[in-house]
Structure formats: structure tokens, C-alpha cells
Design brief:
It contains 13 helices and 2 strands; from the N terminus they run ααααααααβααααβα. Helix content is 55%, strand content 4%. The longest helix is centred in the last third of the chain and has 25 residues. By secondary structure, the protein is mainly α. Strands 1-2 form a two-stranded parallel ribbon. Helix 2 crosses helix 3 and helix 11 packs antiparallel against helix 12.
Amino acid sequence: MVYKGANIGSAKPTHDILSEYPHHLVNNKSLNEIYSVAEFCSDSKKIIQEVHSRNKIPLFVGGSMMYFKSLLKGIDNLPERDDSYRKKLAEMKISESDHFLYDLLVSKDPDYAKAIKPNDEKRTIRALEVINKTGKKMSEQINPNLNSLFSNTYDIHQMAIYDKDREKLHKRIEHRLLTMFKEGLIDEVHELVNQYSIKEQHPILSAVNYKQTIDYLEGRINKEELFNQALYASRQLAKRQITWIRSWDDLNVFNINSQNEIEKSIKFFI
């Protein structure tokens, strides 16, 4: 939701909702830019302080579980992305084998390579990038026991709300996707790819709904395949989020229809 123009595919709140209920970190980046986890953590801490200065309680809402975990637990002090080096890696990959980048990582940092899957290109590229910029192995720079003072500084109340009935959840996902197409998802994505110079490694190119629509616009799949693949990707995303929820510490989990219990939990915390 941070990217301007990426509205329908991200199920971004409408203009009327955003006007009535002001949000932070919405529409604050152009698609010519890439918003990192480090930026999110830095921006979030500033927002928390600003909201507290008005004697208000900041409320974080969304499904980016990795971002929330990074904010809670802290992140390692790693260098920023290097687009020129990433471009070089992409050029090298074209003329080599499918797992060339991963094999390169194995030769430079076998310990970190063991911790990820050979087809995990994002982490592979990031590790190679860090090694190139720092001259040190990725495995030597990450701390699995890293823990910021964030949880010790603030009183944090964590809640998860979702439909525990898998069949109903899938129907809700399908209904939402149908609504997105009716609202003009294809036209939105077409306009975005024409308007912006989106970098090859930009997260929106692999984002649910956007990836599938771009594949359709570039002729790799037909409209029926577009819907089916977007539906499958959405269900897989929901499945991963539920897995995160089940393994999350100090989390109060509610079924989507448990409004009274949710209100009681919020009032008790406040």
C-alpha cells in the first residue's frame, strides 16, 4: 500500500476511508522507488513517537508479517541494495545455468547457502550483494538472536483476525478478487507499467495480483489463466499468513466474526 497508484491490486482503502481515517505509510512511495524493511522500521519508529506526542495510540494494521517481525525483533545493520551490482548478477545469470547464482553463493558463503533454498533467488542475490559491498560473508553479519529494545520500550498488544473456516476464507478471497477485476485491476496495472520505469527486482513484479496481471498483459497467459493464477496465489498467501500467525509469540487470535471479544480485548489493553 506504500506505492502510489497501486490501489486495486493491493486492496488499498478508498480515498473516502483514508480521508475519514488518516493512515501513515500509504501512498508515500513512487513505483520508481523500492521501499525496504529497514525504511519501514525507521519510519515506523518515528511515527510511533509522533503519535505518542499527541497522546494517541499507534495502530499497525496489515498482512506484512515479515515487516512486523523486523520491527518487533530488530534487523541486522546490513548495507543498502546495490542496483548496479544486481544488474551485473542478472546479466551473468542469463549466460549461465539455472542455479548459477546459488552456486556462486555456495562458493563464497557455504554456511548461509545451506540456510536457504537453491531457488530462493531473492535471498541469494541479497547475500551476494552484501558480500560484494562489505567483503564479509552474510553468515558472519546476521545475528539469529538479534533483539531490539522495541518490545522492552513499549507495551504492545498483538491481535490476529481471520476466518478460521477454510472454505469461507477461500470464498471471501475469490469474491475480493472478482471485485478487483470489476473495479479495473487490468487497466490499473497497464497504466502503472506504462507510467513508471519499474526496476527488474522491484517487489511489485512478484506481488500477488500484479505479477499475474503483468504476465497477462505481456501475453504469457490468457484471461482465464490470469484469474486462476491470481486466485491460487492469493490463497497461498493467506496460507502463509496463517502459518505466521500460528507460530507468532504473544498473539491474541480471533475469528473474524468475534466482534465482542475483539472489542473487549482492545478495551482491556487501553
